[in-house]
Specification:
The complex is a heterodimer. Chain A is mostly beta strands. Chain A contains no helices and 11 strands. In chain A, the strands form 2 sheets. In chain A, strands 2, 4, 5, 9, 10 and 11 form a 6-stranded mixed beta sheet that branches. Chain A is globular. The N and C termini of chain A lie far apart (37 Å). By secondary structure, chain B is mainly β. The chains are: A mainly beta, B mainly beta. Chains A and B meet through strand 4, strand 5 and strand 10 of A and strand 5 of B.
Chain lengths: 111, 114
């Protein structure tokens, strides 16, 4: 089983829609969680960290469910500029190679 | 401010040749990572440097791959006797402190092996 699994999509949504992505992780020792955004043929950039209590940044809300071992990203009022691939990243303290990237969920916002 | 830079941005080489990819991390970042991303695929961890500690090489796919880092500065990833399957974008990232902190990625080197 992969460390991090995401639905690859694609998700095609109209402007203004609300869209949610989930990501599951396999190792309960995972400690830190992030969402990165990767535009086509560009490098990944941090979108937001995911805190235990959940956190919001404008139109973006991230949630963590440790019991079920998943994190989610909710995007409200989608903009054309939100079109990108969203990478789920999970980090655990044990072991040297402890940062795991999901393969990403592709979002296209349609005018 | 300077971000992570990588060179070359594109590299086309013939099968069997050696290539060297360079990464300049953000000044002061102690951690440096190399990843590989094949077309349409996720990021594949290759190697991780943290300060002066021994690097974690567990992600290197074969002994044709090696990497070095001088102190907390430049890193080079070397691929010997390249194969067509090595074609990918090679991304370097750096972070301040440990892996718990945000990673800043360079623009990548697109390697094409003919």
């Amino acid at each position: 089983r992969k460390e991090v699994e995401q639905d690859p999509g694609p998700f095609n949504v109209p402007e203004g829609a609300t869209v949610a992505f989930n990501c599951t992780y396999s190792n309960s020792a995972s400690q830190s969680f992030f969402w990165y955004r990767q535009d086509c043929r560009k490098e990944p950039k941090l979108l937001m960290s995911v805190y235990s209590s959940g956190n919001e940044d404008g139109r973006f809300t991230a949630q963590l469910n440790r019991a079920s071992q998943y994190i989610s990203l909710l995007i409200r009022d989608s903009k054309l500029s939100d079109s990108a691939t969203y990478l789920c990243v999970v980090n655990r303290l044990t072991g040297a190679n402890n940062l795991f990237f999901g393969t990403g969920t592709r979002l296209t916002v349609i005018p | 401010g300077a971000g992570v830079s990588q060179s070359p941005s594109n590299k086309v080489t013939e099968k069997g040749k050696d290539v060297e990819l360079r990464c300049d991390p953000i000044s002061g970042h102690t951690a440096l990572y190399w990843y590989r991303q094949r077309l349409g695929q996720g990021l594949e961890f290759l190697i991780y440097f943290q300060g002066n500690s021994a690097p974690d090489k567990s992600g290197l796919p074969s002994d044709r791959f090696s990497a070095e880092r001088t102190g907390e500065s430049v890193s080079t990833l070397t691929i010997q006797r390249t194969q067509q399957e090595d074609s990918a974008v090679y991304l370097c990232a750096s972070s301040f402190g440990t892996h718990l902190n945000e990673q800043f990625f360079g623009p990548g080197t697109r390697l094409t092996v003919l």
